[in-house]
Amino acid sequence: MTKRITIVGGGIIGLSCAWVMARSGWRVTLLDGAPEAREASWAAAGMLAPHHEAHAPGPLWRLGVDSLACWPGFVEDLGIAPAAVDLRLAGGLMPVFDDGDAAEVAARERFLSAHGIVARWLTPTDLRHHEPAIASDCAGALLLPGGQVNPRLVCTRLQAAASEAGATIRYHTPVTGSDDAGVHLANGEVIASDEVVLASGAWTPGLAALAGIDLPGEPVKGQMLRLRAPDGVLGRFVHCQHAYLVPRAGLGLVVGATMVTSGFDKSDDPRAIERLAAGARRLVPTLADAPIVEHWTGLRPRIAHGLPVIARIRPGLIVATGHFRNGVLLAPLTADLVRCIASNQLSPCDLAPFSCPGLPTV
Ligand SMILES: Cc1cc2nc3c(=O)[nH]c(=O)nc-3n(C[C@H](O)[C@H](O)[C@H](O)COP(=O)(O)OP(=O)(O)OC[C@H]3O[C@@H](n4cnc5c(N)ncnc54)[C@H](O)[C@@H]3O)c2cc1C
Q1: I need a labelling partner for 272 at 20 to 30 A (CA). Which of 64, 66, 113, 184 fits?
Q2: What global pTM score does this model have?
Q3: Substitution candidate for ligand 1 out of 41, 196, 273 with most atoms within 8 A of CB
Q4: What was the pLDDT predicted at 49?
Q5: How many separate domains does the chain show?
Q6: What was the pLDDT predicted at 360?
């Protein structure tokens, strides 16, 4: 008999799981309270940047490296060209402007080379050749493997692909809890299934609490903006200590991001937006007059121990959340790991670090 799986949350994590599980022959229902994927996954810059994000080798870095390797096949399996989701794997830069940047870059280069990852130092002359728009007082930059994607386009494609593979996708459908009877909806409906996946981003700890599970975590607010700019101003993302710039085909450059812990508050701070824009213009002086065409806020799902939780925490209940700053990067591998957990198959990586803090994995 076909097994049923209900996924709560239709961001990039829930949608990736829905698509992968539907392709694997499960009867999938995905539920989301919002009209569409408009939370963290919609807000993200879309950097696929394990080496820029990690400061030391560890399970998160390893997971990121493995998930980065999944991206080309993930997009190919969606049946689309990389350009359809603006997938580029040209690496990302860490530029050096001062001693702090130089120390950060040197430490990064050491840890990566010790693990066989090739990072290339670009002298100011090399940099002019690769990225001529970067400010001329830049003392060089480290080019690290990585890439970028447009997460909004990815979510749209995943939703279509999951539906095509047979998944039932229901937005406008808030979940109010889950228990042995199934997943409870705000309209009183109860959906019974063999497995439930909580992939509700920053809201997962609240939903887990309703199921009697303590999952300590909190949202971390991020503000971002988009500057109008012609294609080609930058060929790849640039990641500095205080801001990053990511080119988006036909859409200019997205600039991020703040990190603020203020619960579920998504209000704007206009001064933070101005600071980010000033940082971007400092890095790329030709953006001096580039107007801000859009700005927005998203809530990153963070679990207290700083790692994602990808685990079955009770028979029939899997959690896939806490991807914090790296949920776009980690989506393909997370979906595959959820598939392995649900199907009781051996996973391709050690899942122990991604268990729920304080709870045994079942
Ligand atoms: C400003 C910013 C920049 C970022 N940049 C990057 C980046 O460059 N690279 C990267 O890899 N990551 C980045 N991230 C992180 C990434 O966006 C997140 O880790 C990822 O999107 C989390 O995906 P998710 O599906 O778990 O959560 P979300 O996208 O937040 O989706 C959760 C979904 O659950 C639904 N939901 C919640 N409660 C309920 C309920 N009770 N019933 C039904 N549905 C419910 C919500 O409506 C929502 O659609 C960034 C995040 C932010 C905020």
Answers
A1: 64
A2: 0.97
A3: 41
A4: 97
A5: 3
A6: 67
